[in-house]
From TrEMBL:
GO terms for biological process: autophagy of mitochondrion; cellular response to nitrogen starvation; piecemeal microautophagy of the nucleus; protein transport. It is a peripheral membrane protein. Its main location: membrane. This is Autophagy protein 5. InterPro entries: Atg5, ATG5_HBR, Atg5_HR, ATG5_UblA, Atg5_UblA_dom_sf, ATG5_UblB.
Length: 281
């Protein structure tokens, strides 16, 4: 399943307001939009004003390198491309605009997320912290190059530490009130320490984890379920063991980034008292 996910791409149509010519590209689900910036800035500088002019001093004085991406006026966060697509569910190819918003340091952002996932799994980040410089560099390079074989070799070390697994790195993206201008919802990111085994000594499933974290949307029994978990563009079976999902379908940073999609297409504002975890965003 991992190799299939790494081979999945999302078609993008990227525009800059200085050019009439868009940039078309297929981007891996596990990748990040800022990794496209060097080639995008080169492309739009060359096609400044919609003309195929060559780079020169005059163009450079007018063209300002882009640093951010937006969709229908929404500044996109520094999240995996596949996760962003699942959050906004746009038509394909996805129409994005380049702008001059915050510039993210991709390497540090990614490695910090890997450290957080390692800490959640083991109660310590020694796995990634003790990794050699060569392996740490290879881990990041494999994401940049979308090289699953190189990634798998390093990531398997992180997933198989000498100590038992403590918790599953799980983040839930829950829609909140739609923006009055765009009509799109913002999202609360909910995180909770979910053990691989339940209190009744059963294997933690997707359904039991959701009932534990969002009981209003996913009641344990006898009540109607109001939402559906989405991972890598597909509904997640409630009976799926969470530990297996972590090993096979986590994003490159080690997290299970799960979108919560309302079944009736309506937004429910969840009181904090009904969320059994931390709202981190």
């Amino acid at each position: 399943m991992q190799s299939f996910i790494w081979g999945s791409t999302i078609p993008l149509c990227i525009r800059h307001d200085t050019s009439a010519i868009p940039y078309l590209v297929n981007v891996p689900r596990n990748s990040y939009l800022p990794l496209l910036l060097p080639r995008l800035n080169s492309f739009f500088r060359h096609n400044f004003g919609g003309r195929g002019v060559k780079e020169d001093a005059n163009v450079n004085n007018k063209f300002v390198n882009a640093t951010s991406f937006s969709y229908d006026g929404i500044l996109l966060k520094n999240l995996p491309v596949g996760l962003l697509y699942d959050l906004y569910q746009p038509l394909l190819p996805w129409q994005l605009s380049l702008g001059n918003g915050p510039l993210y340091e991709m390497h540090d952002t990614f490695i910090n997320s890997v450290k957080e996932a390692d800490f959640v799994r083991n109660g310590t980040a020694k796995g990634i912290m003790s990794m050699s410089k060569e392996n740490s560099t290879q881990l990041w390079n494999s994401v940049q190059d979308n090289d699953f074989r190189a990634f798998h070799k390093i990531h398997q070390v992180l997933l198989n530490p000498p100590t038992p697994l403590k918790h599953i790195p799980l983040r839930l993206y829950v829609p909140s009130v739609p923006n009055a201008t765009t009509g799109f919802s913002s999202f609360n990111v909910i995180q909770m320490l979910v053990p691989p085994i339940t209190a009744s000594q059963e294997i933690q499933s997707v359904g039991s984890a959701l009932s534990l974290t969002l009981p209003t949307l996913f009641p344990s029994r006898g009540e109607e379920i109001l939402a559906q978990p989405i991972l890598h563009g597909a509904p997640v079976p409630f009976h799926a063991p969470l530990i297996d999902l972590m090993k096979e379908a986590a994003y490159a940073d080690g997290w299970l980034h799960v979108c919560i999609r309302m079944l009736d297409r309506q937004i429910i504002v969840l009181p904090k008292s009904t969320v059994q975890g931390s709202i981190i965003d």
